[in-house]
Design a protein that fits this description.
Layout (H helix, E strand, L loop, with lengths): L3 E7 L19 H12 L3 E7 L6 H8 L3 E4 L11 H10 L9 H8 L1 H10 L7 E4 L15 E5 L13 E2 L2 H15 L3 E5 L3 E10 L3 E3 L3 E5 L12 H5 L1 H6 L2 E5 L4 H20 L6 E5 L4 E6 L3 E3 L17 E11 L35 H12 L1
Parallel strand pairs: 1-2, 1-3
Antiparallel strand pairs: 4-7, 5-6, 5-7, 8-9, 8-10, 8-15, 10-11, 12-13, 14-15
Helix pairs in contact: 1-10, 3-4
The structure holds adenosine-5'-diphosphate (ADP) and magnesium ion.
Length: about 375
């Protein structure tokens, strides 16, 4: 059924009406463009509202357009990413249905340590980790062994993640922790490094879950002396992607591996839902068992049919999705379910956002989001 959809986007990412002569694959607003165009191709009526530091436009626009749903592509407010949950809270106050994570999930998923603890509670294996508070020096527990990876406790989109994030001795560790503290101004999380393949799985549904095929980020021409991880440049620089042959494609795995990976993705999904936290979870696959890492955020679709009158709230059914990234290790290493700690999304600007498939078509998160959405409506 044709829907009225209000796409809420950052004002500097509103795609132009006329894209003639523009290389869309290189455009900053590619995700927004893909979502909007795909929805329109599916026959929906889409209006786009650009927002920066003022939510005042949402109420009147929703008032006259009466959208069935808001497609929320806002990842920050006034440039502050941690304010994203407040935008969603405002949509809830207005009783508007929206795609994406609820405010509670956004808050919980922001903390890479807290979200790991939640998954660990559900016996989902996650890498060991320790948190280094702002201004403090790292102290390693006996559980952690080099190489380790150092990240911001709160930032997403691989902010602050580069080759130097993987550390092999105490000097490198101290330097990288200091770098996170000073350059990003947040606490650092130091995780056991899981060596392996970078896999992603989308999960969608409520009681009955749809699991998407396992997807892989491959690093075809990455030199052997580099870590094959989704650094900031891997995610965001199309030049770097081309240089190192970084692409996302369907993963080549045998049936048992695929089954195991999809099952852990579903478990992570159910665990996050059961805690009321809708997260998109990064799950790392080792040879023995999948290891869940770094929940980011989930997309939730509220898709029930409504009349033109204001939709009822809360919506009777919620469709949620999870994108899990997994690591298929070569050394058989694993983190057990008894882990004290654990490590998404994604944002949801996931690595897949800018990488392309071998056919040159965009294999990006937005494309899948809009495809998932169109499956539902
Ligand atoms: N414990 C880990 N072991 C191996 N690689 C990791 C680990 N944690 C993160 N990475 C690499 O860094 C990337 C970004 O980390 P992630 O925790 O997902 O942060 P973000 O929220 O910025 O996406 C991952 O996609 C992966 O390539
Ligand atoms: Mg991630």
């Amino acid at each position: 059924m044709k829907k009225r959809i209000l796409a809420l986007v950052h004002d500097h990412l509103v795609p132009p009406e006329d894209t003639t002569g523009i290389d869309i694959l290189e455009a900053e607003w590619k995700m927004e463009y893909d979502v909007i165009e795909t929805l329109r191709e599916r026959g929906h009526e889409v209006r786009v509202l650009g927002v920066h530091d003022d939510l005042a436009g949402i109420r009147p626009t929703a008032g006259f357009f009466e959208p069935h749903i808001i497609f929320n592509l806002m990842e920050a407010f006034a440039g502050v990413t941690t304010f994203d949950q407040n935008v969603v809270s405002y949509l809830e106050l207005l009783r508007l249905r929206y795609t994406g994570c609820n405010p509670r999930g956004l808050i919980l998923a922001r903390d890479k340590a807290l979200s790991k603890k939640l998954l660990a509670y559900h016996r989902i294996p996650v890498p060991d980790f320790t948190v280094v508070r702002y201004g403090h020096k790292p102290v390693l527990s006996k559980k952690l062994h080099f190489p380790l990876i150092v990240k911001s406790l709160f930032f997403e989109a691989s902010a602050g993640i580069s080759q130097a994030s993987v550390v092999e001795n105490v000097e490198q560790l101290a330097r990288r922790v200091q770098f996170i503290h000073e350059s990003l101004g947040t606490a650092a999380i130091v995780e056991q490094f899981i060596d392996g393949r970078e896999l992603y799985v989308g999960v969608l549904g409520n009681e009955r879950l749809d699991v998407f095929p396992v997807w892989e980020m491959s690093f075809a021409q990455m030199p052997d002396n580099r870590w094959r991880i989704a650094t900031e440049r891997v995610k965001w620089s199309t030049q770097y992607q081309k240089k190192h042959g970084i692409m996302t494609n369907a993963a080549k795995l045998d049936a048992t591996a695929t089954d195991g990976i999809q099952r852990i993705a579903k478990r992570a999904y159910r665990a996050s839902i059961s805690t009321g936290m809708r997260v998109s979870t990064c799950v790392w696959m080792t040879r023995d068992a999948p290891t869940c890492s770094k929940p980011t955020r989930t997309r939730t679709w509220r898709t029930e049919r409504t009349s033109r009158s204001r939709p009822k709230w809360p919506a009777p059914r919620t469709k949620s999705s999870l994108t899990a990234s997994l690591r298929w290790g070569s050394d058989g290493s694993r983190s057990g379910p008894d882990n004290e700690h654990q490590s998404p999304p994604s944002v949801i600007r996931t690595p897949a956002r800018t990488a392309r498939g071998s056919d040159g078509k965009p294999n990006d998160a937005s494309y899948f989001l809009s495809r998932m959405f169109s499956m539902l409506v």
